[in-house]
Amino acid sequence: MKVLGIDDNSDINMLLGTVLTASGHDFTSVTDGREGIKLIKQHPYDVVLLDLAMPEFSGFDVLDSLKKEGLIEKQKIILLTASSITDDEISELLKTGVRSYVRKPLDIDVFVEKIQQVHSGQ
Amino acid sequence: MNGKPRSKSNKNLDDLQISSKSTGKNIAHIIESSGKAKESEMYLQRQLSQLQKSNDLLAIAEKKYRSMYDNTPVLLRTVTIDGIISDCNEAYAKALGYSKNEIVGKSIYEHTAEKSMDAMKNNFKNWANEKEITQCEIWLKRKDGTVFLALLKGASLFDEQGNLIGRTVALTDLTEMQIVRKRHEENQKELHAQVKQLVKSNTRLSVAEQKYRTLYEKSPGLLRTISLEGILLDCNEAYAKALGYTKQEAVGVSFYEHTAQISHKAMHDNVEEWKKTREVSHLEIWMKRKDGSIFPVLMSGGSLYDEEGNLEGRTVVLTDLTEIYEVRKKLEHDEARIRSQFEELEKSHSLLKQMEQRYRNLYEKAPGLLRSITTEGILIDCNETYAKALGYTKQEAVGVSFYEHTAERSIADLRENLEAWQKSQEVGRKDIWMKRKDGSIFPSLLTGASLYDDQGKLIGRTVVLTDLTEIYETRNKLVEKENMIKEQYDELKKLDIAKEEFTSMISHELKTPLTPIMGWCQALKNPKIMGQINQAQSTAIDAIQSNAIKLKDLVSDMLDAQKLDMKKMKFDYKDVDVTEMMDFMLKNLHVAMEPKHIEFVNTTTKNLMLKGDKSRLEQVLNNIILNAVDFVRSDGGRIEIRAESNGDKILFMIKDNGMGIPKEKQHHLFTQFYQLDTSATRKHGGSGLGLSICKGIVDALGGKIWVESDAGKGATFYFTIPIEKKTEILRIEAPNQFSTV
To answer: With contact defined as beta carbons under 8 Å apart, do B730 and B570 qualify?
Structure first.
């Protein structure tokens, strides 16, 4: 499957890429939210991994834009969240169309499993 | 006066006459015997010596009589039968203004006044015939021609043969007698005139008596006349009528009959005094009527005398004072009333004066600035303090508008205050800036009270002006300080926010690298991802991974502690099955007990539920349990966890049999960064925030946390959590938290 990673930390992007390509997936990553939106508009991905805490154009901004474009329902999104975000806040975000979330620092096994679940529409 | 010496000199004259007679007889006898008996010379001799003796005797007698003749004050002259003066005494000569020599040998007629010449001649002729001198009054003429009346008396002189040879007369000056006689005549005349006058006056008196009688009778005053004994001799009709008597009944009785008992003594005294002084003094007495009733009168009057001037009685007027008494009584009553009113007034006046003095003192001596103004704001009074504070004398300060004493900036305020007061009559409190004589100003607080007149009309007000200079200074200082504090506070707040942001940033930044570290470690250990690694490489990766986890926990603790400090920790309140949660804790932490072979038991009762944040409760339990693991010894260590219902709370207990905590250190346990000892820190590790985070979470959930322990005997941690949510959810307030990254 085709996966897009949006995270300002390229080390994390690299880790995710390594893990996912090892599992036989196609992984693209960007460090800027706006670029991510461009790519999504160009060709839809099977799953988008979105970091919320980014400078200048945050994950929230990305979600807002996608919502305006009407893409948030079509695009399957998994949030990569910091520990400071509570369960309630996450459940609010889940209501907007976001499919799932993974807390950082992430457990690779849990992460891979979650992607499989989202992709298969569970 | 003249009678006696005159009769004495007559007697002397008589003696003289007798003795000269006998002297004559003796001389004749001697001549006869010398002529007849010449024979006896012896006899003669004897006779001669006798004669001689008798001659001597005669000479002595003659001398005696001569002296008497000459020195008697009576005028004596001796006249011959022819009327020639043969002798006179000094008195005679002196009385007629001659010397004795001029008189002797002159005729008596030369010494006789013309008007007595006939009488003198008759007397002399008569004497010559009768040989007896007729006593008569004769006018004598002095040398200077003036005349005077004298009484002539005398005795005849005879010779030895008894022939008349002359006479000696005494002339008594009758000038004085004549004066007396004249006076007597005049008296007589006067008496006649008096008698005439008396007759006239008698007539007039009888007319007057008639008149007075009428007056007496018809007088409206009560008149009565009493005798010395107090018996009524008379009274008028008015008197009798006033006392209810007929005049016949009234007269003849004692006046005491008509006097009220209460006035008897006064009457008695009055009468006694009258008898002494003869003056009837005024007296108020009470009269008694026939029917016994009494009435007051004023008595006045005059005394009556008989013809010899003896007090006979008195007539008095009695003026009925009944009406006057009534009026007087009323007057006295009124006067008493007025007096008592006056006294009361005086009392209240003096009281008022005292009060006024007291208030004046208060006003003057008050430390506050006092002034009194009219409704128009004109100063009618102020105290010394006020005048002094404004730099005026009191005289200067009074009489001007209070705006004169007000700073420009407060004039509008004061006008507003005055107008509000005129309407409401209530003096509103106001900060007013006052102006001194020198133009300088100072702040004051105006408070006061209204003044009213007797009718309750507003006439002014008295206000206290409290000098606020010091208060203003203090206030300014306070404001300055407040501003400073606010600035500092703002700065601190900024700093705090900065610190918060910094901590938040640091924590986040610290956490971010952990994701790739931990992720790569995991990836490296997964042969499917990175290929097979050897044992040494695996051990190294484990070390990296476990330290990364420690670092992650540390950062989590720091973030929690910070959130609790800021009261920004969020709690997700949900139904928590406590029994199940405790079972989970036992299962989950069993692994941690294995290295030390600790006996780990859970004695929680069944069916415990509460409303709370499950993950935070687990965090607390986790913290305390792992703490206990650190402090119990290997082999033989025991940790018991338990939860039980406790009223409206659930009581949690974590009991160990470790080294325990000394009493004096127990209260520090829940403070941030506190470690029992630094060596222990190294031994047991940890951020030092664990228990303080536990306390923060328990407090925030509305519970309590404490420890019970004795050194060496293990420790038991307790905390309670209310079954129902009691505290509000603390909202997170850090919108910039992410954008700052």
So the answer is: yes
